[in-house]
Backbone:
């Protein structure tokens, strides 16, 4: 096929691409395809977008002509054809986008990355990983873009997973092992979660959440996720971060617990000692201490601390609920159901959260669980 060097894009489309195809489809297709392909070079984004939508409606003949033009097309048109091929779901779209990561034009290479981002992770990621391993993505820039796509997909996976753990009300349910499903995805997920946590509320995924309360819930759960996905190789980073945080920073506890989970226990034990010294004078510290005991697996101490809280605040439904969680962890089902009913009587009525809470999993094997849920659901 002749190149379009020396010809305008629209003339090239008409004389080299579309004319030989006029006999291959309905008589009216060729002029439409000719006009739409020419529109892919227009300055106005709305015109280019409309052309792509129309080409998708024309179907395979239009896409085939567009793909045959790809190598000869100017950079802007190559980027639009990439987007068109991927959006169409045509099997030629994915290999074209992978090859385009090595395009010498930065605009086209970045367009390939964006096109790959639009594909489902189950389709794109194995192909990208295979292309990287086999050396099919040759340039350093192409490899960098490919890894950016994989990382972005991981961020989406993490965010979706974290959102699935959010309850419909303002409560923050957490329990050890809540994010085991994320941990099973491997080390790269651990790095993504750590990045989201350390960037805090300034992370782009947090910034995309308009509602302040929802953002706080999301960030709280990212901290819980870090505790479950943390890996020993991350110890030095976590230790450096915790040492640089200002006193009172809310991230201290999550980092200390994460280090505890990888056998660096001094940070959490020291934090518990510090809070123990102030807890008897400060109800807020007492709640925090109970939570730190929980993370350290000291459930007898958790129950003792909540008993202390309840002596001064007997209507504290969360204290009753958290006692039920620790009793369940200890296998003391009778005490757990007693505390759970007390929590309900004092106003904690979130059945959805109770059914999600892994701490109460031992109770779900007890016949009394179904009776409790049936009695209270919808009330």
Residues:
């Amino acid at each position: 096929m002749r190149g379009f060097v020396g010809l305008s894009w629209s003339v090239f489309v008409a004389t080299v691409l579309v004319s030989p195809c006029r006999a291959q489809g309905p008589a009216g297709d060729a002029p439409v395809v000719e006009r739409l392909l020419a529109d892919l070079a227009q300055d106005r984004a709305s015109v280019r977008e409309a052309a792509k939508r129309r080409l998708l409606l024309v179907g395979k003949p239009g896409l085939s002509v567009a793909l045959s033009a790809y190598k000869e097309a100017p950079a802007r048109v190559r980027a639009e054809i990439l987007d068109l091929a991927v959006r169409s779901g045509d099997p030629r779209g994915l290999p074209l986008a992978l090859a385009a990561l090595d395009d010498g034009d930065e605009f086209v290479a970045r367009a390939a990355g964006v096109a790959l981002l639009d594909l489902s992770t189950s389709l794109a990621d194995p192909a990208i990983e295979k292309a990287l391993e086999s050396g099919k993505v040759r340039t350093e820039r192409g490899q960098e873009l490919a890894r950016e796509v994989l990382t972005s997909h991981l961020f989406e996976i993490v965010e979706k997973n974290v959102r699935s753990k959010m309850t419909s009300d303002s409560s923050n349910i957490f329990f050890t092992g809540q994010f085991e499903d994320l941990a099973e995805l491997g080390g790269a997920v651990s790095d993504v979660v750590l990045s989201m946590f350390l960037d805090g509320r300034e992370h782009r995924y947090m910034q995309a959440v308009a509602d302040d309360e929802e953002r706080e819930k999301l960030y709280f759960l990212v901290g819980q996720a870090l505790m479950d996905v943390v890996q020993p190789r991350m110890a030095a980073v976590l230790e450096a971060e915790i040492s640089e945080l200002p006193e009172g920073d809310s991230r201290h506890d999550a980092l200390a617990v994460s280090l505890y989970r990888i056998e660096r226990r001094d940070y959490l034990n020291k934090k518990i000692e510090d809070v123990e010294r102030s807890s008897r004078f400060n109800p807020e510290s007492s709640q925090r201490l109970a939570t730190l005991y929980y993370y350290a697996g000291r459930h007898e101490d958790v129950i003792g601390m909540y008993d202390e809280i309840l002596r001064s605040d007997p209507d504290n439904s969360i204290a009753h609920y958290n006692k039920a969680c620790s009793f369940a962890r200890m296998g003391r089902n009778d005490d757990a159901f007693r505390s759970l009913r007390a929590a309900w009587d004092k106003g904690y009525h979130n059945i959805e959260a109770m059914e999600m809470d892994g701490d109460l999993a031992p109770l779900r094997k007890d016949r009394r669980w179904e009776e409790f849920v049936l009695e209270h659901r919808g009330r």
